[in-house]
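ok here's CarD family transcriptional regulator, seq below lol
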Amino acid sequence: MARVPIFSLLSPEDQQAVASFAHPVDLERGQLLYRADDPLRRLFVVHRGRLKLVRTSVTGREHLLRVVGPGDVVGEHTFLTGTRPDFAVQVLEPAQMCVFDHRDLATLVRRFPAISVAMLRSLSDRLVASENHLALAGAEVPVRVAEYLLALPSQATTAEGHPLVRWPLPKRDVAALLGTTPESLSRALARLRDEGLVIPAGEAVALPDLDALEERARY
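and the structure came out like this:
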């Protein structure tokens, strides 16, 4: 529970008390956690695996909203507002979650008010991220790709010492997340490569000049 932001303000003893209300659930790849407009009476905490939140337009086009992983929470907005979700949640890879019934969660919030404060903080952070994403929506695709690559964690370096980042999602999902098409994503990567800012390497991308890439992300 210590890794979950909405419970991180609690003492270890209080976190243990919270854990006693959780119900573990295992999910397989491709499984739907819930659909848009489903009556949702549970909050989900991801412990292992990744899930994607997808909204479908009236024309049937899917728009990837975000991807959640270990430590992330799904469903707090529904708990706080009582509204039904307007997006579906699907498992990207085998996942393990802890589930809290809304009735139990309401009991925990009354007992530990810090949980509701942390929920509001989480939603506020997500709102800021959404605003930043909207600000980038009008930028050309190479700018969006540069910004996205800079936000990825570097887990290794190349023989030349360049930071190496790995695509956390299939490129078609990355394209959807950036509001573009796989073809436009490929062209943007090729353009950044020609500018000497990235070196694509299969499922990874080397970043040979971080300062120049950060500058590229601004225009």
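fwiw The radius of gyration is 19 Å. kinda neat tbh
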